[in-house]
Specification:
It is built from no helices and eleven strands. The protein has 119 residues and is an all-beta fold. Strands 2, 4, 5, 6, 9, 10 and 11 form a seven-stranded mixed beta sheet that branches. The model has no long low-confidence stretch (mean pLDDT 97).
Length: 119
C-alpha cells in the first residue's frame, strides 16, 4: 500500500508565500509523474503543476511565474513553492503520484491540505 501525506497549508495574506510538501511512503518500487491539483468550493479539481521523474515540469497558466514544483527522489517527496499568492489561489491542494509497487502500478492521492489567501 502507498500513502501520500501533505503538509504546509495554511492561511496567508495576499502576496505571501507558502511551501507545500508531499511525502510518499509504503512498498514503493518506482514513482513516475508527481503533481499538485487544487479544488476550490464549487469548482472542479484542476491541475496546478506536474513534474516527471526526469524533472520536466508543467504548470497551469494561472500559476506560471509564481509557483515552482520540485521533487526529491531520494525522499520520495514533491514540493510546491507558492509565491505572490492571490485570493483566487484559495483551495484544497491535493498531491498526486503515479507509483509502481512490486504488485501493480496505480495513481495515488493525498488527503488534501487547505490553502487560504485572505487579508
Amino acid at each position: 500500500q502507498v500513502q501520500l501525506v501533505e503538509s504546509g497549508g495554511g492561511l496567508v495574506q495576499p502576496g505571501g508565500s507558502l511551501r507545500l510538501s508531499c511525502a510518499a511512503s509504503g512498498s514503493i518500487f518506482t514513482i513516475y509523474d508527481m503533481g499538485w491539483y487544487r479544488q476550490a468550493p464549487g469548482k472542479q479539481r484542476e491541475l496546478v503543476a506536474a513534474i516527471t521523474s526526469g524533472a520536466s515540469t508543467n504548470y497551469a497558466d494561472s500559476v506560471k511565474g509564481r509557483f515552482t514544483i520540485s521533487r526529491d527522489n531520494a525522499k520520495n517527496t514533491v514540493y510546491l513553492q507558492m509565491n505572490s499568492l492571490k485570493p483566487e489561489d484559495t483551495a484544497v491542494y491535493y498531491c498526486n503520484a503515479d507509483v509502481s509497487t512490486s504488485r501493480l502500478r496505480n495513481d495515488y492521492w493525498g488527503q488534501g491540505t487547505q490553502v487560504t489567501v485572505s487579508s
